[in-house]
Amino acid sequence: MLVRKDSKVIAVDGSRMAMFKNIGEAFSPVLELIEEHKNPALRTSELGTDKPGRTFQSGSTRRAAHELTDLQQLEEDRFVTEVAQRIEKIVGETKAGIVLVAAPRALGVIRKHMAPETSARLLAEIPKAFGPDESVPLAKMLVKHDV
Asked: Can you give the pLDDT of all 147 residues of the chain as single tens digits?
């Protein structure tokens, strides 16, 4: 995949977002970290301590438990929604091409909260998980990736 010089690559997972700038050439990208956001990792006990709910049927002695809400996943989805808003702003401010690389679940949440015009301006959406400290493997993956 061609990633022209000065293009931006945004890598997202459930707990962090990193934006890189290609300072290398199109066929051999060299990614430089220019922005990073982290979601503070809270323990589940800090997010909530409630037990699963129970229901009782009035005509019998039967009981049923409700599934416990995944509070960690809700927190990750909230963070990724904020990242989607940040991506909207970045796309609106820049003329350079943008490649979005995100964990598959995070990419789904981002797509749901991003305007169609913004999605159309992206060079590519790649469903892979890369973090802010993985610029070299990310650059190698971009060279091999076909759009």
From this structure: 788 888 999 999 888 899 999 998 888 899 999 999 888 766 665 555 666 666 666 666 666 666 666 777 788 888 999 999 999 999 999 888 899 999 999 999 999 999 999 999 999 999 998 766 788 888 888 888 876
User: In CATH, what number does 1-38+93-147 get?
Assistant: 3.30.420.60
Cβ partners under 8 Å of residue 103, min gap 6? 12, 13, 14, 127, 128, 129
- The DSSP result for 26-75, as a single string, is SSS--EEEEEEEE-----HHHH--PPPPEEE-TTSS-EEEPPPP-HHHHH
Sheet holding 124-127, edge to edge: 31-38, 16-22, 8-12, 98-102, 124-127
Strand partners, 33: 20
Among residues 82, 123, 77, which one has the least CA distance to residue 100? 123
CB 111 within 8 A of CB 119: yes
What DSSP designation does 132 have?
Answer: T
